[in-house]
């Protein structure tokens, strides 16, 4: 059986899109409107046999399904290619034209035999040339009655419509749309697709993204109607007049759209945006602001506005407006969708006709309500993450974000409503304006994030570990908003680079985030200044170019993650010039005697010494550290050596080797103390040079001894790292021989720890270790930055699922044996297929069930002591390739398949 998919540049992590077994198939995804002229293909090979490796493949790409069924690859017939490659196979056929629909399939030859042809899959090309688009953008470049753009960034939604005739029989139709900042598209009264808050956000002066939909089923012969609603999103910037020196603005909402119809007789028709459309700003969405919320007046609804026959004589003629200066591009990352729904767990009445709704989970999205009342009466919804001691909402940590929705009833019985162009992070909702007591069943929480799959599972015998993992899942998912925002609730919600430096790596074990982070790397490249500077926030909605190593360096760390986890060398090649330019900028501007003298944040948000010491104090304090900036510069030289090799920039290898050696020597000369520590012996100051390989061999033991002393004795088993140090803590402890101490840190319930958050009611990850006591002005209860490398450690070291070669072509399976942790059950759906590790460890027996995907191999490390007996339940252990016994491990090399190992202890 073959599972196969299409890989699109920029990198799209392979997801199974068609399954084939005995010629039955299920279509899951058909990429629409791509603008990559050399798309890449990938497939999974599924077999019950062991040791299955691909020996050859053949791909057919055809212009019609009929030709593909006849095995005629008129666009591309790769022929039989004798290679193991089953990911990132680049298209090498005839040029692909705008709007082309292509049909393709693949067959493979493996050590288990020749496969059948896979099921048919399709993809379509978008609008490859500027001239393919309509002549003009439409919109209204001004405010209307009820708007307030001077103080509140209050702007009503804009509604547009157009009717047209389709007199012939339709073969197929596609709609390509750019609706800025956000859009909803309707044809004949029905919404097209189930995306929300689309398209993905960018710096619109650099690039704008379009979405393409197959709308064949929406179009009918005769009269048709198109309707769109435009919301503000990041285009009409929030708080744009509050700090004009800081916040980048783009203008009023606008759109560009092409509806392309192909008839059965071969003729075509285009319905484009122009001044024949009609528009109005006098609709029910009176305001929509990501920080403040949405105001909806149901008395202003116009029934049937997006269908044929609606009287739009009072609407205005749409106006041609200036286009954004950014390049038009197909959106390769997923849009957001409603990915989950939650029912509230309680509703409580307070005084003054106010009710508090508890969702039971800190979530990101919005609330759907059912309500009734007199026409013109208003229901008010206020959102927050937690409550005050008196049961009222705690909103101090929202800063000046109102996080409020207003719904004006139309008085027609039971009304159902949810917002369209806003989201927020919340657990609690304050309800007011009801003339009766609302019920729990009147509300549904809609969880919204990018439509990316959860590809990892993780569960252990330790309940606290499981809850921390669950909190991490909710926090990561909720902060996927087309960009990796820092938090979803207060007046910030920005894509800070520092927050995702190493956290993205851990996230990749849980979510299929390859396309997401490839897009973000493009955002970072686009934000780079001509002199090489990279901002702290990208896209640069805020003009923060503070110059430091730890924040902009996320570009290198994310590119490394994509290459390591998915094998996508384009993540390196596309970003290499920008990385090189930035490093040169920092070196030329700030390096003195090989010490990088500029830092901005230090080890951001280190925990106060005690909870009591941090009560009411702001964490928004910077402690710049030349030690950190210099160590990170060294680390990036080592990454650039790897990147230069991978991208063919061999001439740079020696340059970075020499520079790195000089930095290391200067660093040790300035910061190393012969007592075995760096600088003032802070935990992070020791971990960073040790894990980066900067410590002289004869000093490694002393430095690590100081690290373990700090954790075990000084900290009494706790961490003391901020954002920078926490990214490397767990792997450092583990890789230098103390996985037991890493587990101690990971399972503490007292301050400061992840368990402390859980013990104090957290259902996501806090921004601060003392998030229950710190000054609320910078105190998000849903941040992911303090996860550090915890998830990496969960998968690579507790579960034993680690890539030994790019994309898990070779897998290292070496779970740590930790007292008190009896079972670990984890899985990860890699680009080659599903990897599983499920073990149970008792005093007398170790049982380990694993799965290795076809076309890969694994090195497995079984715990083994002299006198132990190893068996493999399905086949004799003698049939497996024994490598050696070393350091209490029996090491075997195995091929693909399912295995069940048993180690009986003496």
UniProtKB/TrEMBL annotation:
<feature type="domain" description="Alpha-L-rhamnosidase six-hairpin glycosidase">
    <location>
        <begin position="454"/>
        <end position="798"/>
    </location>
</feature>
<dbReference type="Pfam" id="PF08531">
    <property type="entry name" value="Bac_rhamnosid_N"/>
</dbReference>
<dbReference type="InterPro" id="IPR035398">
    <property type="entry name" value="Bac_rhamnosid_C"/>
</dbReference>
<dbReference type="Pfam" id="PF05592">
    <property type="entry name" value="Bac_rhamnosid"/>
</dbReference>
<keyword id="KW-0378">Hydrolase</keyword>
<dbReference type="Pfam" id="PF25788">
    <property type="entry name" value="Ig_Rha78A_N"/>
</dbReference>
<dbReference type="InterPro" id="IPR035396">
    <property type="entry name" value="Bac_rhamnosid6H"/>
</dbReference>
<dbReference type="InterPro" id="IPR013737">
    <property type="entry name" value="Bac_rhamnosid_N"/>
</dbReference>
<dbReference type="InterPro" id="IPR013783">
    <property type="entry name" value="Ig-like_fold"/>
</dbReference>
<dbReference type="GO" id="GO:0030596">
    <property type="term" value="F:alpha-L-rhamnosidase activity"/>
</dbReference>
<feature type="domain" description="Alpha-L-rhamnosidase concanavalin-like">
    <location>
        <begin position="349"/>
        <end position="448"/>
    </location>
</feature>
<dbReference type="InterPro" id="IPR016007">
    <property type="entry name" value="Alpha_rhamnosid"/>
</dbReference>
<dbReference type="InterPro" id="IPR008902">
    <property type="entry name" value="Rhamnosid_concanavalin"/>
</dbReference>
<protein>
    <recommendedName>
        <fullName>alpha-L-rhamnosidase</fullName>
        <ecNumber>3.2.1.40</ecNumber>
    </recommendedName>
</protein>
<dbReference type="InterPro" id="IPR008928">
    <property type="entry name" value="6-hairpin_glycosidase_sf"/>
</dbReference>
<dbReference type="Pfam" id="PF17389">
    <property type="entry name" value="Bac_rhamnosid6H"/>
</dbReference>
<feature type="domain" description="Bacterial alpha-L-rhamnosidase N-terminal">
    <location>
        <begin position="168"/>
        <end position="339"/>
    </location>
</feature>
<dbReference type="GO" id="GO:0005975">
    <property type="term" value="P:carbohydrate metabolic process"/>
</dbReference>
<dbReference type="Pfam" id="PF17390">
    <property type="entry name" value="Bac_rhamnosid_C"/>
</dbReference>
<dbReference type="InterPro" id="IPR012341">
    <property type="entry name" value="6hp_glycosidase-like_sf"/>
</dbReference>
<feature type="domain" description="Alpha-L-rhamnosidase C-terminal">
    <location>
        <begin position="800"/>
        <end position="873"/>
    </location>
</feature>
């Amino acid at each position: 059986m073959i599972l196969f998919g299409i890989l699109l540049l920029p990198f799209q992590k392979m997801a199974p899109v068609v399954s084939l077994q005995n010629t039955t198939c299920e279509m899951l995804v058909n990429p629409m409107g791509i603008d990559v002229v050399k798309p890449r293909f990938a497939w999974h090979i599924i077999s019950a046999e062991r040791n299955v490796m691909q020996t050859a493949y053949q791909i057919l790409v055809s212009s019609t399904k009929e030709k593909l069924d006849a095995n005629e690859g008129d666009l591309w017939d790769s022929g039989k290619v004798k290679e193991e490659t089953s990911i990132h196979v680049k298209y090498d056929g005839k040029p692909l034209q705008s709007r082309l629909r292509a049909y393709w399939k693949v067959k493979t030859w493996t050590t288990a035999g020749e496969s059948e042809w896979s099921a048919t899959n399709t993809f379509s090309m978008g609008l490859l040339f500027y001239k393919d688009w309509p002549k003009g953008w439409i919109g209204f470049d001004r405010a209307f009655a009820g708007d307030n753009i001077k103080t509140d960034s209050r702007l009503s939604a804009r509604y547009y419509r157009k009717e047209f005739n389709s007199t012939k029989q339709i073969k197929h139709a596609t709609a390509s749309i750019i609706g800025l900042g956000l859009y909803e598209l309707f044809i004949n009264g029905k919404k097209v697709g189930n995306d929300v808050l689309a398209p993905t956000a960018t710096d619109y002066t650099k690039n704008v993204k379009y979405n393409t939909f197959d709308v064949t089923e929406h179009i009918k012969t005769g009269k048709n109607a198109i309707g769109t609603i435009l919301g503000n999103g990041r285009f009409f910037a929030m708080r744009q007049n509050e700090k004009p020196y800081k916040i980048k603005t783009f203008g009023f909402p606008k759109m560009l759209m092409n509806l392309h119809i192909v008839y059965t007789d071969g003729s075509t028709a285009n319905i484009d945006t122009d001044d024949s459309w009609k528009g109005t700003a006098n609709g029910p969405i009176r305001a929509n602001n990501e920080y403040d919320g949405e105001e909806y007046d149901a008395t202003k609804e116009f029934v049937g506005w997006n269908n044929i026959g609606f009287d739009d004589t009072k609407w205005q003629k749409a106006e041609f407006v200036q286009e954004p200066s950014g390049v038009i591009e197909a959106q390769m990352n997923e849009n957001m969708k409603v990915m989950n729904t939650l029912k509230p767990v309680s509703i409580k009445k307070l005084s003054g006709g106010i009710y508090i709704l508890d969702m039971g989970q800190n979530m990101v999205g919005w609330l759907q309500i059912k309500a009734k009342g007199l026409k013109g009466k208003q229901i008010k919804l206020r959102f927050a993450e937690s409550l005050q001691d008196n049961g009222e909402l705690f909103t101090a940590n929202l800063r000046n974000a109102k996080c409020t929705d207003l719904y004006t009833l139309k008085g027609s019985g039971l009304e159902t409503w949810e917002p369209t162009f806003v989201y927020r992070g919340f657990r609690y909702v304050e309800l007011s304006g009801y003339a009766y007591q609302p019920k729990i069943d009147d509300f549904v929480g809609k969880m919204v994030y990018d439509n990316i799959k959860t590809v990892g599972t993780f569960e252990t015998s330790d309940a606290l570990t499981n809850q921390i993992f669950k909190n991490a899942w909710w926090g990561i998912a909720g902060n996927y908003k087309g960009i990796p925002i820092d938090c979803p609730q207060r007046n910030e919600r920005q894509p800070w680079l520092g927050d995702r430096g190493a956290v993205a790596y851990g996230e990749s074990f849980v979510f299929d985030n390859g396309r997401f982070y490839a897009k973000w790397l493009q955002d970072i490249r686009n934000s780079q200044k001509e002199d090489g500077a990279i901002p702290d926030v990208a896209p640069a909605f805020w003009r923060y170019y503070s110059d430091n190593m730890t924040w902009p360096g996320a570009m290198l760390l994310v590119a490394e993650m994509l290459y390591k986890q998915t094998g996508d060398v384009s993540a390196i090649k596309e970003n290499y010039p920008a990385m090189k330019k930035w490093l040169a900028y920092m070196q030329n501007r700030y390096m003195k005697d090989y010490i990088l003298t500029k830092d901005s944040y230090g080890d951001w948000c280190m925990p106060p010494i005690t909870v009591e010491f941090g009560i009411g104090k702001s964490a928004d304090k910077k402690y710049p550290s030349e030690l950190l900036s210099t160590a990170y510069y060294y680390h990036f030289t080592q990454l650039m050596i790897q990147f230069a090799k991978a991208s063919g920039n061999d001439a740079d290898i020696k340059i970075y080797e020499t520079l790195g050696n000089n930095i290391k020597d200067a660093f040790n000369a300035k910061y190393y103390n012969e007592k075995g520590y760096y600088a003032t012996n802070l935990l992070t100051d020791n971990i960073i040079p040790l894990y980066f390989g900067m410590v002289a061999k004869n000093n490694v033991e002393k430095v690590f001894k100081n690290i373990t002393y700090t954790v075990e004795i000084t900290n009494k088993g706790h961490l003391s790292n901020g954002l920078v140090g926490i990214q490397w803590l767990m792997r450092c402890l583990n890789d230098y021989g103390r996985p037991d101490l890493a587990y101690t840190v990971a399972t503490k319930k007292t301050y400061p720890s992840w368990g402390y958050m859980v013990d104090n009611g957290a259902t996501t990850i806090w921004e601060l270790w003392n998030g229950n006591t710190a000054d609320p002005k910078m105190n998000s209860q849903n941040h992911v930055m303090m996860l550090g490398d915890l998830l990496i450690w969960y998968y690579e070291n507790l579960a034993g699922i680690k890539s030994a070669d790019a994309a898990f072509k070779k897998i290292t399976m070496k779970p740590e044996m930790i007292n008190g942790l009896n079972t670990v059950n984890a899985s990860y759906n890699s680009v080659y297929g599903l990897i599983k590790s499920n073990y149970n460890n008792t005093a007398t027996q170790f049982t380990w069930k694993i799965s290795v995907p076809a076309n890969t191999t694994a090195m497995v490390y079984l715990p083994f002591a002299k006198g132990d007996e190893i068996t493999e339940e399905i086949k004799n252990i003698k049939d497996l390739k024994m490598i050696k016994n070393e350091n209490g491990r029996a090491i075997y090399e195995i091929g693909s398949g399912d295995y069940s190992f048993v180690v009986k202890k003496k």
